[in-house]
């Protein structure tokens, strides 16, 4: 009992519903990966995901034991480490082909596999950008135009660095995190209107003078993938067929005669994991994914609302923006509502670095929930 008492006391301090949602997501993701055949190297996606989840939970629990304000005090170390990771990857990284022919130099080799540093940088960005926002909030400078420009410059650092790696999907996720966090902190709406107006004006110009023909084809082929089922529409067309083949209840999780077992959909274990749920578990399985992710997002917003300071709420909004954007873009890809951009479905897609780092984000949000003491009692000696 002496061993169990600290564990029991720990979980009493946590958001138990949040933990239940996360554990349900973990179990479901493993369930979907179990019937997928091993990779060409013979590695089981189920085993890799299980290891990643265990590492992720260990990291998450460690982060919950530290006051998030103390973590943010060392924003400069986090920023320096993240910058080092991206630059190192740009110089020494390796390219791994993802869905849609995306060939980004965004991975580094590790013993036994590869690691995508940009996934960890997302968590670092949650910390550094939240610190930036909280300092401006305390100084009542969030309405200052020069300070808002500096916030945009802060966000552009990771966006541009991953863009130069060829990983535009991750760059879009960073942009969505930036929007979510600045909106949650209370940056005035006129700045958002200006951003979207600039995008609306700039996109036609980029389409006419910057984008190449193959990029235009990729951006338009999703509208009718059946028109080019052997080339640009290949993956999305096959993905939609798999989703539809499951009908309402699915063809069975461990049915040996399925499109999943025959690897009909390329990269089904990652970018198109939703097609696996659609075929094997049908409409019910797809809706369960949506339900679990929706519950996770709403619970994150609830923790953000009860946060004692801007720093805590910004961390929550960063996690919310990351998970919501990845889910939206991934499901849009799978349902041919958006072009293929190599974005995985958070927590469900196979991938050790992505899965582990998402759980680290969960740990930061839980730290916000567990450390509700007044921010005045915490020393904030490192300021901008």
TrEMBL record:
TM region positions: 17-33, 45-68, 74-96, 170-187, 192-210, 272-298, 310-329, 349-370
One biological process term in Gene Ontology: cell division
Molecular function per GO: lipid-linked peptidoglycan transporter activity
Entry keyword ATP-binding: no
Alphabetical UniProt keywords: Cell shape, Membrane, Transmembrane, Transmembrane helix
Name the UniProt record assigns to this protein: Rod shape-determining protein RodA
Top-rank lineage group of the source organism: Bacteria
Membrane topology designation: Multi-pass membrane protein
GO CC aspect terms: cell division site; plasma membrane
Principal place of residence: membrane
Compartments where located: Membrane
């Amino acid at each position: 009992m002496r061993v169990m008492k600290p564990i029991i006391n720990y979980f009493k301090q946590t958001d138990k519903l949040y933990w239940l949602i996360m554990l349900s997501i973990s179990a479901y993701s493993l369930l979907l990966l179990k019937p997928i055949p091993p990779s060409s190297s013979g590695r089981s996606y189920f085993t890799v995901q299980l290891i990643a989840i265990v590492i992720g939970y260990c990291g998450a629990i460690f982060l919950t034991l530290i006051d998030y304000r103390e973590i943010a005090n060392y924003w400069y170390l986090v920023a320096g480490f993240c910058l080092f990771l991206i630059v190192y990857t740009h110089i020494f990284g390796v390219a791994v082909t993802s869905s849609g022919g995306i060939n980004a130099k965004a991975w580094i080799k590790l013993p036994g596999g590869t690691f995508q540093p940009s996934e960890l940088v997302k968590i670092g960005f949650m910390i550094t950008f939240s610190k930036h926002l909280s300092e401006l909030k305390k100084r009542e400078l969030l309405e200052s135009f020069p300070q808002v420009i500096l916030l945009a410059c802060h966000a552009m650092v990771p966006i541009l660095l991953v863009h130069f790696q060829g990983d535009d999907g991750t760059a879009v996720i960073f942009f969505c995190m930036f929007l979510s966090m600045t909106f949650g902190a209370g940056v005035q709406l006129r700045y958002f209107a200006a951003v979207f107006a600039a995008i609306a004006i700039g996109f036609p110009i980029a389409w006419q003078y910057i984008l190449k023909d193959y990029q235009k084809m990729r951006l338009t082929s999703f509208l009718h993938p059946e028109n080019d089922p052997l080339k640009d529409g290949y993956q999305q067309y096959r993905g939609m067929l798999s989703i539809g083949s499951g009908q309402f209840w699915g063809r069975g999780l461990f049915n040996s005669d399925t499109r999943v077992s025959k690897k009909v959909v390329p990269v089904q274990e990652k970018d198109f994991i939703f097609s696996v749920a659609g075929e094997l578990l049908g409409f019910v399985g797809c809706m369960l994914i949506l339900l679990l992710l929706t519950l996770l997002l709403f619970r994150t917003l609830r923790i953000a609302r009860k946060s004692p300071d801007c720093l805590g709420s910004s961390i929550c909004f960063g996690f919310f923006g990351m998970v919501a954007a990845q889910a939206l873009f991934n499901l849009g890809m799978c349902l041919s509502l958006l072009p293929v951009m190599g974005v995985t479905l958070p927590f469900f897609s196979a991938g050790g670095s992505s899965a582990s780092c998402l759980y680290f984000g969960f740990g930061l949000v839980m730290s916000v929930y567990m450390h509700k003491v007044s921010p005045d009692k915490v020393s904030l000696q490192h300021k901008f």
